[in-house]
Amino acid sequence: MKRPLFIFAFIFSLGIAAQEALKINFIPLVLLSGFCLFFHRKIFIFGALFFLGMAVSAWRHQPDNCDIARLINFQPGEYLVKGFVCSPPENSGGKTEFIFCSRQVQYNGLHQSCCGNIFVRLSASEGISYGDSLILNGSLQRPRKYFSRGKVSADMRVKIFQPVEIKKSLFLSARRFSFYLREEFTRRIRRYLGGISAGVIEAMVLGRKDNLPKHLYQAMVRTGTVHILVVSGLNVGIVVLMVDLVLKIFRFPRKLRLALALLFSLFYCLVTGASTPIVRATVMSGVFLLSYLFQRQPDIYNSLGLSALLILGFDPGQLSNIGFQLSFASVLAIAFIYPRIKVFLRMNHYRNKLLKFISENTLVSLSAWLGTVGFIAYYFKFFSPVTVLANLFIVPLASLITFCGFSLVAVSLIFPPAAALFAASAKLVVFLLLALNSILLSLPLASFSWG
Asked: Do residues 434 and 216 make contact, with C-beta atoms less than 8 angstroms apart?
């Protein structure tokens, strides 16, 4: 079978989509999948994968008996909830917001163990960090619509909170340390940069958008280049290339370079908060790096299929995630469309290296745009013809900005007097990026929106 992992991922995805529509119970699906495995014909293997996809999706939607929303049924009154902070707290306007992993709840004289995430708001701007164990006192309501997709069980407005001691896992301690590094890197960036430059560097290097002006974000949306301001596949790819390049200069063996690049990408995932886009990008890059480690000519379709199986097996809800769809659609489009156009235009016969380089990058940008334009138009009611041209220039600038950001942080730790030079370089490249985006946005018919 040619490219089996890609085919398996496709069938597994069809099962997830079918379960979203049919809502069949978990146990019959497991039995059907197991029954198909008794036969060794290809069609039954496909059937087993299809029903397994349905079963995984059904398991995800099974109600959890310990979920705090089921226990309290949102009865009015005050609640005491014990647990720990499981997302980086965001401070704005004298208030703090974060996700809280509940472990015990007390209400109406009852004391019960529980589970489930709570979106917390409290009137305090500091003093809470990721991993802190707390007892919260306040009211619980049903979650807001955009937090209700199986990730948050309730909203809580906190009146009083107090720290407590809960035994922390090794993973939680590692995550807490990673967020400490994130805050330290942020302080160093803001020490040497200010205003828009700091906001762009923080967004692209650390995944922090709280210091990014809204008008700038919207301008990048309109040119179709906003993906550079979100830590995702592009940023992980830049990090891997940077690590590989630096190690190559010091003559590290190829396999060791790839292994260290993989480890650094995992570390980078933690430092940037391990959000869904960065975890997805890290899994995808990890699969490709491993394929290069163990094969001479890795197949991009099989690697993409394995990435999808890993991501959807852990969280089948990702299939309906816009970011997931855009990520895989763009990579698939580049893998399928780019080589065919390249052969059609006979680009291997181009003798001028500069022309060949520009042509290849243009085709990569065009292929990615063709793969995602339908999704963007459907979900966002937005169409930007200038995106291909914009990405041709802005993506290289984004790579330079990311390199300057990492270099600034590294040099500020090793030799602070030289950090000002990298800060000046970062300011210049950010200025060029914003100026170019403004020029592209001013072009006739640069973007259309409706609905």
From this structure: yes
What's CA 243's distance to the chain center, in Å? 20
pTM, whole model, 2 decimals?
0.81
* First-to-final CA distance of the chain: 45
pLDDT at residue 416 greater than cutoff 70 = yes
Domains of the chain are: 4-60 (no CATH), 68-168 (2.40.50.140), 179-444 (no CATH)
Residue bearing tokens 């993409």: 304
Residues 376, 130: Cα–Cα separation, whole Å:
34
**pLDDT, tens digit, 9 for 90 and up, residues 149-200:** 447 889 998 888 888 766 666 666 777 777 788 888 889 999 999 889 999 9
Least confident piece of the model among 41-55, 70-84, 113-127, 166-180: 166-180
Alpha-carbon distance of 137 to 368, in angstroms, equals 49
3-state secondary structure the chain: CCCHHHHHHHHHHHHHHHHHHHCCCHHHHHHHHHHHHCCCCHHHHHHHHHHHHHHHHHHHCCCCCCEHHHHHCCCCCCEEEEEEECCCCEEECCEEEEEEEEEEEEECCEEEECECEEEEEECCCCCCCCCCEEEEEEEEECCCHHHCCCCCCEEEEEEEEEECCCCCCHHHHHHHHHHHHHHHHHHHHHHHCCHHHHHHHHHHHHCCCCCCCHHHHHHHHHCCCHHHHCCCHHHHHHHHHHHHHHHHHCCCCHHHHHHHHHHHHHHHHHHCCCCHHHHHHHHHHHHHHHHHHHCCCCCHHHHHHHHHHHHHHHCHHHHHCHHHHHHHHHHHHHHHHHHHHHHHCCHHHCCCHHHHHHHHHHHHHHHHHHHHHHHHHHHHCEECCCHHHHHHHHHHHHHHHHHHHHHHHHHHHHCHHHHHHHHHHHHHHHHHHHHHHHHHHCCCCCCEECC
Q: Who's near 258: CB < 8 A, 6+ residues apart?
A: 244, 289, 292, 293
pLDDT of residue 56: 93
Confidence (pLDDT) at 146: 46
Please name which of 213, 205, 163, 165 lies closest in space to residue 184, comparing C-alpha atoms: 205
Decide if 276 contacts 321 (C-beta within 8 A): yes
